[in-house]
């Protein structure tokens, strides 16, 4: 069984090399480690040259997340037909030495499944920051599974079957790409990680989140247009109309197209989704 690991990066050489070195300590190393360097202007390429185990692919700085992972995925599909799985991972995570081994194990135990890694806060290694979410397929309201709970309060051996999956620490069988294609970079330039798992689910594959391949998340070091602690008038446009935001209206539209089976469901889900994101904005809105 062969597994490729694809990591997109841009101007984060220190974090990237720390991740590459962490991968060298894994109990199960990837058979191929692909780093997609999307136009970095720091010393990323020079540092990667010191790691012959890494295959570096270069973009022009305009790939963003979706285009970068697609470049890595397509490289594996075109040049390594013998591979069984492709794993996607961010360069800014902390992982245990057996993370990849456990992720592969869960994948083998669950054929025809995409497997996501649960995450806890790196500061206490107990507080759950990600375990997937349930989403109502008509009214679009989300329930974030176990978020804020302690691992000691749940059964970590019990698999979770979420509505979709994010692209951080996800294992995807190669057969998924052969059946439904790669990520949709045309409609999801950035923040495109959840659409492919959703399409895979509709094609008959299962989605699983497991606590066995655990990731240590850094919520205090995460920044983004749609995850600020407060918003003002100047944030309205980027919150809804910037492609770097997960609340970008275009993304909500095409995500809803995947979810909906008929026009009435589309209109209902899309409207409710926009209302939910608007409420999120208003809860944190301040005049100054």
Please supply descriptive tags for the structure shown above.
Spore Coat Polysaccharide Biosynthesis Protein SpsA, Chain A; two-stranded antiparallel sheet; 9 helices; 288 residues; 11 strands
The structure class reads alpha/beta
**Could you tell me the radius of gyration in angstroms?**
19 Å
Mean pLDDT: 93
Q: What's the CATH architecture of the largest domain?
A: Alpha-Beta Complex
Amount of helix? 25-40%
Strand-and-helix sequence, N→C? EHEHEHEEHEEEEEHHEHHH
Overall geometry comes to globular
Strand content: 15-25%
What's the main sheet like? 9 strands, mixed
Number of helices: 9
Q: Briefly note the CATH topology name of the largest domain.
A: Spore Coat Polysaccharide Biosynthesis Protein SpsA, Chain A
Unreliable spans are none
Q: Kindly, what is the distance between the CA atoms of the first and last residues, rounded to a whole number of angstroms?
A: 56 Å
Number of domains: 2
Number-wise, the strands total 11
CATH class of the largest domain: Alpha Beta
Describe the structure.
The protein has two domains: 3-221, Spore Coat Polysaccharide Biosynthesis Protein SpsA, Chain A, CATH 3.90.550; 233-283, no CATH class. Helices cover 33% and strands 21% of the residues. It contains nine helices and eleven strands. It has helices spanning 13-23, 44-48, 64-79, 99-109, 174-180, 195-202, 236-241, 249-259, 263-283; strands at residues 3-9, 32-38, 54-59, 85-88, 94-95, 113-121, 128-130, 133-135, 142-144, 170-173, 206-217. Strands 1, 2, 3, 4, 5, 6, 7, 10 and 11 form a nine-stranded mixed sheet that branches. Strands 8-9 form a two-stranded antiparallel ribbon. Strand 1, helix 1 (13-23) and strand 2 form a beta-alpha-beta unit. Helix 8 packs antiparallel against helix 9 (263-283). The longest helix has 21 residues, at 263-283. The radius of gyration is 19 Å and the shape is globular. The chain starts with a strand and ends in a 5-residue tail after the last helix. The mean pLDDT is 93.
């Amino acid at each position: 069984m062969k597994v490729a690991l694809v990591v997109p990066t841009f101007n984060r050489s220190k974090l990237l090399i720390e991740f590459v070195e962490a991968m060298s300590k894994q109990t199960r190393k990837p058979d191929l480690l692909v780093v997609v360097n999307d136009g970095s202007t720091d010393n990323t390429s020079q540092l990667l040259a010191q790691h012959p185990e890494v295959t570096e692919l270069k973009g022009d700085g305009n790939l963003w997340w979706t285009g970068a992972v697609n470049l890595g995925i397509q490289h594996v599909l075109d040049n390594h037909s013998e591979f069984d799985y492709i794993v996607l991972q961010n360069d800014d995570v902390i992982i245990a030495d057996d993370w990849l081994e456990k992720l592969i194990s869960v994948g083998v135990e669950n054929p025809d499944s995409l497997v996501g890694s649960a995450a806890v806060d790196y500061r206490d290694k107990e507080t759950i920051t990600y375990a997937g979410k349930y989403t109502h397929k008509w009214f679009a309201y989300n329930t974030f599974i176990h978020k804020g709970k302690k691992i000691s309060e749940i059964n970590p051996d019990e698999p979770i079957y979420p509505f979709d999956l994010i692209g951080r620490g996800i294992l995807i069988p190669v057969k998924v790409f052969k059946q439904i294609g790669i990520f949709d970079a045309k409609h999801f330039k950035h923040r495109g990680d959840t659409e492919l798992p959703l399409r895979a689910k509709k094609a008959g594959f299962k989605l699983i989140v497991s606590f066995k391949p655990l990731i240590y998340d850094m919520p205090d070091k995460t920044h983004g247009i749609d995850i600020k602690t407060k918003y003002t008038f100047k944030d309205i446009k980027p919150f809804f109309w910037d492609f770097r935001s997960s609340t970008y209206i275009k993304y909500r539209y095409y995500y809803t197209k995947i979810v909906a089976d008929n026009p009435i469901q589309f209109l209902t889900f899309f409207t409710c989704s926009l209302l939910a994101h608007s409420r999120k904005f208003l809860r944190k809105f301040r005049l100054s």
